[in-house]
Request: fold
Amino acid sequence: MKTINIFSLSLILLSSLLLYTCNPKDTGDSKDLAEEQNEEKFEDKDAEKDADFVVDAADGGLLEVQAAELAMKTSTSNEVKNLAKMILTDHSKTNTELKTIAEKKNITLPIAMSDDNQKKYDDLANKTGEAFDKAYCKLMVDDHQEDIKAFKKQAEDGNDPELKSWASEKVTTLEHHLVTAEELEKKRD
Reply:
């Protein structure tokens, strides 16, 4: 009888272990996985650099959209909600455009935020009231500063003409988001 119970317990533990290791949620950082898949696809280093830009832009876009959705629900400030609405509208459109470009160029995109961006989102989600509004504005300032630098670099140094043009077209919108977020951040200091 003990042999059967030990065997059954071992079988259950083995099955649980297999299910855990096969769980797609536990496969690692989605951004890292997308980058690895693109590395395997593109032997040309220039194409790989363009793919890295696309993956980074997609990851940032996921954060901006999800943080904006959170701000629309959580913020008590109409100004912050207006910023979030603008970012949600613009970045949703941008994310859709980027997905179309990526599909055309066979670039794998992350299916979820990177671990780093998920942490930023989680930190934001744990705040309420004025603390939330300050943190959201700061996140948008920091994130858009990084975006502008990356998009300008792609527009100037990218290899794919379509991606260069697309990145260049987005800089003005990103700069507008940054200026608006900076103004709101100053009001909250």
Notes: The chain is about 85% helix and 0% strand.
